[in-house]
Specification:
Blueprint lengths: L18 H13 L3 E5 L24 H4 L2 H6 L1 H17 L5 H11 L3 E6 L5 H5 L4 E3 L2 E8 L5 E3 H8 L14 E5 L8 H13 L2 E5 L10 H8 L3 E5 L12 E3 L3 H10 L4
Parallel strand pairs: 1-2, 1-7, 2-3, 7-8, 8-9
Antiparallel strand pairs: 4-5, 4-6
Helix pairs in contact: 1-10, 5-10, 8-9
The structure holds nicotinamide-adenine-dinucleotide.
The site of nicotinamide-adenine-dinucleotide has 27 residues, from loops.
Length: 266
Amino acid sequence: MQQNNKIQRPQFTPDKNVSGEAKKLRRMIDEAQRIVAFTGAGISAESGIPTYRGAGGMWSKYDPEKFASIDYFRKDPTYYWRFFKECRHDLIAKAEPTLSHYALAELENRGKLNTIVTQNIDGLHYLAGSERVLELHGNTNRFYCLGCSKQFNLNQAWEMVQTQMPVICDDCGGIIRADVVMFGEMLPERTITEAEQETNSCDLMIVIGSSLVVYPAASLPYQAKSAGAKLAIINLDPTPLDSLADLVIRHPAANLMAQAVWLEQE
Ligand code: NAD
């Protein structure tokens, strides 16, 4: 793969506390030919989007068990749309990618990284310039009508929610929902099949910001390791797969990833 230099090297001040760990990760990256990154809500925490499970209390007013549940949406779609109007739109629409997102885009650009498999629905990998992204849980910037499948983008949804509650399709009167996998729904089959293929053929999987407790997505790092890949886990809190990993780094990911990708090795 040719390097096309489209990702600008971002400005950052290396945090010396993580330089040693960053070097270890850099060595693994240098030795690898086919990297898959597996990302979760923690990679976007430094963009200001809180994780469901971490501290922060952002989700205390709107409960993820409700706004992200298909059973609850069927009962009361206004709950999701009130959450969208009051919290979600500003939070995700204004979020910028972190150094971690840019670092992964740069690894793709260098021909090192084959795919990002993400549990996130915020679209920040695309915004950072990554092209090969498998979104296991969909994308909260897209919407469609439950009645006729007509599609809507974020701006349309934002405009409609100013005058409607819940938001209704202008063609058929059906309820509009976000194009995300809610609790109680299956993952998109084609996406999970591709993610498994990439997982089975990578030689390094880098997990960034996932508690690795949401299944079936969290089985992929285990599968990568079983198929012979090395496994690096960068996560603030311990995960159930730490004992299997070749490298575990418990530190905020952004500065560390930038050092691993952009600083020269000594
Ligand atoms: P999770 O909330 O279960 O775990 C996030 C992990 O990230 C935690 O273990 C925490 O220690 C770690 N973390 C927090 N800040 C970090 C940082 N700066 N650097 C490194 N690690 C950090 O997240 P999950 O495993 O992705 O599963 C949660 C589900 O919630 C997913 O299905 C996802 O779709 C959804 N979700 C998505 C978003 C988003 O798109 N940004 C936000 C919240 C929840």
